[in-house]
Design brief:
By secondary structure, the protein is mainly α. 67% of the residues lie in helices and 0% in strands. It has 29 helices and no strands. It is flat. The two termini are 36 Å apart. The relative contact order is 0.06. The N terminus and C terminus are likely disordered.
């Protein structure tokens, strides 16, 4: 058994051992066990302070760090959370759960801890977020325990929306059969599935390319009293389009017409998309003309389908012809469509035209997003065009476009590559001024780049030390690269000093990474190939 398999086995065993305890703690009717487990005797004086004012970002950060550091079953997360009891609010809990959506087990323990604070009651939103977290973490036994307990205690209404979350979770986990079983299980919770639930299930499966399963289930239920809508057909048509099967999409479209459905614009756009993605652009254009003859006026999305198809085929001449047609019809492409053209222009080396399109977007009210600028920025960085790259960043500031980690990573990587270390410092220092806090990937760009440069090991050491001080767990490859550099130059004692510092960190993950800094892979307890952040910085679901 490898060290990775062993770690996974230990986590699974511990989770299963704790499951009965966690299930009992979900109950709102067991105060004796609750107080003994959480030692809440000193919290009662704070119960009146539990309000829903906007939480301090520092509180969100501190609690998120605790959930990251105390992620293992044996970690005493309750003691670490105790000092924050008086600051608890529904808003704070929601923000922490959203931030820690990749930390299923500790997020669940945080939810249970907050639930038992006297005077505190979770919001409907918090319940939904935890369902999403458990599903995203593939903790499906815990997820169903939680839903069952919600239903038993009435702590939160079991609504259709909760099952929509479950459908998405199973689809993301590549378990379409379980998503279908969840649909059939709705009646056990007193919910009679409607066509809206069917649409949500099919959409979730199609989005993750489980189109065949979605089609089979659709064929099964459409004759069992659940009548599909035009929207239902459109979802499936779009699903077949996304996997490039225009024939199945056309068959569904024809079936919809044969059954006498009044085809709407969404359905027309779905079949156009399917035909274009299947390489049948000429047929799509015929459908487009037929759509107009039936009295349907194409919208901006109808035209954008062709623009994306032409960009994919590197036919920019036709793409610009469609853009001109949209102008004549007073239709404005969305940012996604403009970005497709900008991407193709940059791939073809036509960066001047990309800038012209950027200006057109602003003039026409289609505000460029970070992706729009980053595409052009990547062009400049690939060619080591420092002044143009930095000028574009200044423009992003003027246009009130927020720089993201990709923006900084592109520029920093370029500056280190060409040895402009004076500029590197300026860009790094500007991040805090812009409200951006470096993530593990940005630190990796710095450390990896500096390790490849002569006489820059001290700077690489400094940024690694900064990362540890900030509590950001490093990539395994970053630890190994810096250690090899230091040992190769005869500075093995510096690697040992870093390892000792890592062992004193409050982050369990950083403590474990210290074994790599000491050159010992055999006892590594975390995934060395892990390349994702410990908790997400965005709050989007």
């Amino acid at each position: 058994m490898t060290s990775i398999q062993y770690a996974h086995f230990c986590y699974y065993f511990a989770s299963m051992a704790l499951r009965p305890l966690l299930r009992s703690l979900f109950s709102l009717n067991n105060p004796t066990t609750i107080h003994r487990f959480l030692n809440l005797k000193n919290f009662s004086s704070h119960s009146q302070q539990i309000i829903s004012d906007p939480p301090s970002q520092h509180l969100v950060n501190d609690l998120s760090r605790i959930l990251s550091d105390y992620r293992k079953p044996q970690n005493d997360i309750e003691s670490a959370l105790t000092p924050f009891a008086s600051h608890l609010s529904t808003n704070l809990v929601e923000q922490v759960l959203k931030r820690c959506k990749n930390l299923g087990f500790s997020a669940q323990r945080f939810f249970i801890w907050a639930q038992k604070i006297p005077g505190f009651q979770h919001s409907k939103e918090s319940h939904h977020i935890l369902v999403d977290i458990l599903g995203s973490s593939r903790e499906f036994p815990f997820l169903w325990d939680f839903i069952t307990e919600m239903n038993r205690t009435g702590s939160c209404e079991i609504s259709q929306e909760i099952f929509w979350i479950v459908f998405r979770a199973y689809s993301r986990a590549n378990l379409p059969g379980d998503a279908i079983r969840a649909f059939n299980k709705m009646v056990d919770f007193g919910i009679r599935p409607r066509v809206d639930e069917l649409d949500q299930l099919l959409y979730a499966m199609c989005k993750k390319k489980h189109v065949k399963h979605a089609q089979e289930f659709f064929d099964q239920v459409k004759g069992e009293g659940l009548s599909p809508s035009v929207k239902t057909y459109s979802i499936l048509i779009r699903g077949w389009a996304d996997i490039g099967d225009s024939e199945c999409a056309q068959k569904l479209f024809d079936e919809m017409l044969e059954r006498g459905f009044t085809v709407d614009l969404l359905a027309w756009n779905s079949i156009l998309d399917a035909l274009c993605k299947g390489g049948r652009v000429d047929e799509a254009y015929e459908q487009f003309r037929g759509m107009k003859s039936r009295g349907f006026e194409p919208d901006a999305y109808s035209y954008s389908i062709f623009i994306h198809a032409f960009c994919e085929a590197n036919n920019l001449h036709s793409a610009f012809k469609v853009l001109d047609t949209m102008k004549r019809n007073n239709l404005i492409p969305n940012v996604y469509t403009y970005n497709a053209v900008i991407k193709r222009l940059c791939k073809n080396g036509s960066v001047e035209e990309a800038y012209e399109l950027l200006n057109e977007m602003i003039e026409r009210g289609a505000k460029p997003d970070t992706w729009s600028y980053n595409t052009i920025l990547a062009f400049h960085c690939d060619r080591n065009e420092v002044n143009l790259a930095l000028k574009l960043i200044s423009r992003m500031d003027r246009d009130a476009c927020k720089l993201d980690r990709h923006t900084f990573n592109l520029v920093l990587k370029m500056l280190i590559r060409i040895g402009r270390f004076d500029r590197v410092e300026k860009v790094w220092n500007s991040m805090e001024e812009r409200g951006f806090h470096p993530t593990v990937s940005t630190y990796a760009v710095m450390i990896h780049g500096l390790c490849k440069k002569r006489k820059k090991h001290d700077d690489a050491y400094r940024y690694f030390e900064m990362m540890i001080d900030e509590g950001v767990p490093p990539y395994a490859v970053t630890c190994e690269m810096l250690r090899n550099k230091l040992v190769g130059l005869g500075f093995a004692e510096q690697a040992d000093i870093l390892a000792e510092k890592m062992e004193r960190s409050s982050s369990v993950t950083i403590q474990e990474a210290a074994t790599l800094m000491r050159g010992n892979r055999a006892h590594l307890r975390f995934r060395p190939e892990e390349e994702e952040e410990e908790y997400s910085d965005d709050n989007d679901d």
